[in-house]
């Protein structure tokens, strides 16, 4: 049933009109292959259900003994695998200036310009002068920006020629009417970070704010499209990894599916804490996010992967590197710091945001059994994903944390969760961690090694253009979006039946 619900409302023959993706520059890598093989999920589905009904009829008319299990096992298995659902994704026709064009501009800054980029980016600018002419330039290495690079890898997968996308869960369609969702290819994080780097003062203003101009351009474009008018934006997917991405237009995109790293900086929609019992998407107000319609995505890890076979003995119990002082929820960090800094076997260090700091983290995370993950200014950070790639058992100290791919990954199998109140009792944490046996820790590490790939975006191809790993972050994100489809569809249909002239629904009266 779910799959029927998820089919596009008008399953017309797929059109071969490639939506010319960029308007400024041609993108040969894609346009060569514009006769998309937006293939045969409808016929396959039809075949499957035909097969199912024949099968059930067979069961009905013949007692099960007459059909041996061997005769039905094989066809049903092979059909099942070809029925692996996909999500049909249409990429909105935004100009290149709103995605890869931003990277052209990023790399065009003078190497001596200290405002944007890290040491490594300045190095890339001065040593690789050809970078500006690349069709798909690399994403910045500056760790502050790189940790949010989901937008780059998700688009890279969608831009890959169809014949190289056979492992992708998202099927790119070239007619929005065949799409389950519309992907908005705006590099919202890079846009925000570039504005913050160049003129931080203008960021919260609209005047003189390039980022705001781009946000406006995206929204004004989308609101004119048939797809947006039909859905009110509910089936549009925005990547908003940086909490300040699309800051000025949050209320306008609030009905959409937002890919966020956590709910920090947003109000959380929690039906239990309000008197609104409704669980549909149209009750989620502006500046709110919800696990109902939004998807938590991983930060991009910054440290290299340690394979289980390379794991060495770990001499420290607990490792933490980061700033001692942090805003908002990070107050506990300071208290934890004082509690732990002089414990034996615990390494607490303040790091530098450069190559030295990176080496320090790699060493620290690989030489410690556990890695501390206290609340920062938002509940999560890329540190958690660095710990997983380093096979350092995460110790998550946060009373309200949202994690990616919940339900697909069981974090209890490789992490330790600690209540803030316990963590702040003197000696409690170290004693608790010491109580884990070697076998338990080894099991955690084995489980962690299995989930490492799930949190990796980079597919190893320049520009992210090329086949993606089946078990990587991009496919998991689309699988999560796929899970939301029935509810989104319901919300769109409910909205559509409202007679003209009916304004905002007030089914819920909070007093
Ligand atoms: C829910 O309603 C009750 C009674 O009307 C009220 O006292 C309470 O404050 C409301 N709670 C919220 C979260 O609005
Ligand atoms: C940790 O030990 C150092 C050196 O003995 C001392 O100066 C410092 O005050 C101690 N810190 C805390 C928080 O106890
Ligand atoms: C990183 O920064 C620290 C402190 O500023 C400095 O001592 C160190 O040499 C730097 N390392 C590199 C590789 O630039």
- Quote the average pLDDT: 79
- Report low-confidence residues grouped into runs of 5 or more: 1-18, 20-82, 267-287, 505-511
Bound small molecules, which ones? 2-acetamido-2-deoxy-beta-D-glucopyranose
For the terminal residues, how far apart are their CA atoms?
A: 38 Å
The main sheet comes to:
6 strands, parallel
Order of strands in the sheet with the most strands? Answer: 2-1-3-4-5-8
The count of domains is: 3
What portion of the residues fall into strands of 2 or more residues?
A: 5-15%
- Number of helical regions: 19
Q: What general form does the structure show?
A: globular
Number of strands: 13
Q: Determine Rg (CA atoms, Å).
A: 25 Å
Helical proportion? 25-40%
Family: Belongs to the glycosyltransferase 47 family.
Subcellular location: Golgi apparatus membrane
Transmembrane segments: 45-62
Protein name: Exostosin GT47 domain-containing protein
Note down, in words, how this protein is organized.
By secondary structure, the protein is of the alpha/beta class. It folds into 3 domains: 2-20 and 39-85; 89-299 and 473-496, no CATH class; 308-455, Glycogen Phosphorylase B (Rossmann fold, 3-Layer(aba) Sandwich). The chain contains 19 helices and 13 strands. Strands 2-1-3-4-5-8 form a 6-stranded parallel sheet. It has a 5-stranded parallel sheet with strand order 10-9-11-12-13, sandwiched between helices. β9 (316-321), α13 (331-340) and β10 form a beta-alpha-beta unit. α9 (188-198) runs antiparallel to α10 (210-223). The chain starts with a helix and ends in a 15-residue tail after the last helix. The structure holds 2-acetamido-2-deoxy-beta-D-glucopyranose (NAG) (3 copies). One 2-acetamido-2-deoxy-beta-D-glucopyranose binds at residues 338, 341-342.
